[in-house]
Specification:
The chain is about 75% helix and about 0% strand. It is mainly alpha-helical and about 325 residues long. The chain has a two-stranded antiparallel ribbon with strand order 1-2. A hairpin with a 2-residue loop joins strand 1 and strand 2. The longest helix is centred in the N-terminal third of the chain and has 36 residues.
């Protein structure tokens, strides 16, 4: 489903351009569809990352514990993460119910609540995956689920408004992060705790998520990621090397110049210097060594050149900086 949405997001702007060129008209609501496709891609991608155990975390100290304490620590961190995720899913359900009652539509036959349903659905899937991966036994998984539900009930109750439970909740969240809880659980958990302590409805969190994710600028992130994947999978690295060799091959130190240019160009569109090093390192490193560049210099040049592309739009970090800073991307 996520692949179909991503392909549709890439295809709609192309059809829009072709339609305006041939028939002087575009596809009604195509921009809105692409923006809300970003919402679905983001939450489905999070669910897939949770399924594969690839949610970003700062690391874990459970490896320092004796074997007998590792499983309880894993259950604890997973239960806290799942508790936060369940609270966010509940907040998303509240938002969807409000939009259902309001009856607004993005497009004909596309109500707003259906587009926003990605939020509770995505969080619910992530919570389920966290519980599944908490242990290899169903007994420990059941314990994780019970603790997650209990934690969500405590946070959503009036007990949190008292000083001690709130402080204890912060300590529990911090301990869970140290034991391997994903970073999104830490950030989302802090948001939930402070919103609850300030007696602000939790539905405000998915409202802000919806506003940010459906912004016109943020849709470029999955699209450029898709473009970078096509560049990598399509063996474009070799063709880029040949192109830049033809352009600057006459210069002294041409292979070093080619390395800088092609790595910068590749990173600009893939958004990740690591991908650039993997895709181009096998081609450029032997060429540099063959030209009698020192091995350490060659490694350093590849690594540094792979990071240069992060400074130029439309690289993803630049787009994110523009979104967070409220700066138009075309002004970057």
């Amino acid at each position: 489903m996520s692949i179909a949405i991503l392909c549709a997001m890439a295809l709609l702007p192309i059809l829009e351009i072709v339609g305006r060129w041939l028939w002087r008209t575009g596809i009604p609501g195509s921009t809105m569809l692409v923006q809300h496709g970003t919402l679905w891609i983001g939450f489905l991608g999070g669910a897939i990352a949770a399924r594969d155990g690839r949610l970003l975390s700062i690391g874990t100290v459970t490896g320092l514990f004796p074997e007998a304490f590792r499983k309880p620590a894993s259950v604890f961190s997973a239960s806290v993460s799942a508790s936060v995720t369940l609270l966010l899913a509940y907040a998303g359900v509240t938002l969807v119910r409000i939009e259902w009652a309001d009856g607004r539509h993005l497009l004909p036959l596309l109500p707003v609540w259906l587009a926003e349903a990605a939020i509770p659905l995505g969080f619910a899937l992530v919570a389920w995956r966290l519980i599944r991966l908490s242990s290899d036994t169903w007994g420990a998984r059941a314990a994780t689920a019970v603790l997650a539900v209990a934690g969500a009930l405590v946070v959503s109750s009036d007990l949190l408004f008292r000083g001690a439970p709130f402080a204890v909740s912060l300590v529990v969240l911090g301990a869970a992060v140290l034991l391997g809880a994903p970073l999104f659980a830490a950030l989302g958990g802090l948001a939930v705790l402070f919103f609850r302590y300030a007696q602000v409805p939790l539905a405000s969190i998915p409202v802000e998520m919806y506003r940010l994710v459906t912004s016109p600028t943020l849709a470029t992130i999955p699209l450029f990621t898709f473009a970078g994947y096509i560049l990598t999978a399509g063996n474009s690295s070799k063709r880029l090397v040949r192109l830049f060799r033809a352009m600057v091959g006459w210069m002294p130190g041409a292979i070093a110049v080619v390395t800088v240019l092609v790595c910068t160009f590749f990173t600009t569109f893939t958004g990740a210097s690591g991908v650039t090093i993997v895709a181009l390192g096998g081609i450029l490193l032997p060429a540099l060594i063959a030209e009698r560049y020192p091995e350490r210099f060659s490694f350093g040049l590849l690594t540094a050149s792979g990071s240069l592309g992060l400074l130029f739009p439309p690289c993803l970090p630049v787009i994110l900086y523009a979104v967070v800073g409220g700066i138009p991307v075309d002004k970057m």
